[in-house]
Amino acid sequence: MEELVLFETRGRNDEIGVATLVRERPLNSLLLETIELLSDQIYAWLADDKIRCIVLDSSSERAFCAGADITKLYHKIKASDEPSTYADKFFLHEYRLDYALHTANKPIIAWGNGIVMGGGLGLLGGCSHRIGTRTTRIAMPEITIGLFPDAGGTWFLSQLPDGLGDFAGLTGCQLSAADGLALGLLDVVVDAESKSAIFQRLEQIEFTGTLASDKERITAGLSGFALRELPPQQLQAHRAVLSELVEACRASDDYLGTFEEALSRLPEDDWLQGALQTYRNGSPLTAQIFVEQMRRAKKMSLAEMFRMELAIAYRCARGEEFPEGVRALMVDKDKNPQWQFSNYREVSRAVIEQHFEPSWTGAHPLADLGR
């Protein structure tokens, strides 16, 4: 049986719970089984007074976590004409775990070395101490597969300064560790070779059992490892022009029309042009869903955002766009998705709103969050 995640306790009195993702070959992509294992153990640690701190780690030098195993989701969805029980359970348990990380009663540290994308950023984004390295690459690239920025993406993208989360969600652009630090997606950037020393330092901390105090002690412990010279910035280097772009879009009655027009006038920069091409190749339906997602998020609590995401995810699992995007990128690998709509204007208001309607009967599966 494939190993997915390893658990151990470390520290002075076995008071640090460490969960290490070990599915290295597919970049620690998440299966339902991985989510269930993580959930069971993390919930147990959160309820255990002996555990003072939790660490989410990876055994891979290439990735913390590349997100969901979308190929597995694709095959489960395509295996039946009925709605996929696997996909429903995956999204439900993933979002519940992410919410638990965001609202945890004890510090949680994430070792965000290498690729941190999609559901991987969902895990890292919920932690109190998010560590990056020189090789960290952050992205929410769901527009390339016809899904949407989920796993708490509504929350952390809406929190980015100057509306830059809009650009990140629509283009799936990759961010460096320096970007992540400047935008508030990371708390500290360190040398990956300092990992052992960092863990040793954590094990020396005298935890108090008080959340605020323990967070401060961890922050102080990590600060000594912070890099003085950061890797190059990407999005942050274009912050002024992109913030003006988003501001113009938000003031327009035709957000995506304004967005596309502004993109065509961007400077001839490799990173910007790569982001532009990703948007143009991406799903017009995803683009419309994301704009509506961010509009609604303005008046939502964290719990409400996760409930909204679950409604969209269930709809995507029952639609054609998401499976087609995965087929083109990961299954047949022809990189030629046949999207349902040739451009965003073809996506009707009714189609957009349908994605925010529940596909279940009775109470919301995440009704208990925040209550």
Molecular structure report:
The strands form two sheets. This protein has a six-stranded mixed β-sheet with strand order 1-2-3-5-7-9, sandwiched between helices. It has a three-stranded parallel β-sheet with strand order 4-6-8. The longest helix is centred in the N-terminal third of the chain and has 18 residues. The relative contact order is 0.12. It has 16 helices and nine strands.
Residues in helix, %: 40-55%
Indicate the structural class: alpha/beta
Q: Largest beta sheet, briefly?
A: 6 strands, mixed
Care to count the β-strands? 9
Supply Rg: 20 Å
- The outline comes out as globular
- Rounded average pLDDT: 96
Query: Please, how many domains?
Result: 1
Count of runs of 4 or more consecutive helical residues: 16
Which oligomeric form is depicted? single chain
The CATH architecture is Alpha-Beta Complex
Q: Which stretches are poorly predicted, pLDDT < 50 over at least 5 residues?
A: none
CATH topology: 2-enoyl-CoA Hydratase, Chain A, domain 1
Task: Please state how the strands of the largest beta sheet are arranged side by side.
Answer: 1-2-3-5-7-9
Question: Termini separation (Å)?
Answer: 38 Å
Name of the top-level CATH class:
Alpha Beta
One letter per element, helices H and strands E, the order comes to EEHEEHHEEHEEHHHEHHHHHHHHH
Strand content: 5-15%
Key phrases:
47% helix, alpha/beta, 2-enoyl-CoA Hydratase, Chain A, domain 1, 3-stranded parallel sheet, 6-stranded mixed sheet, 371 residues
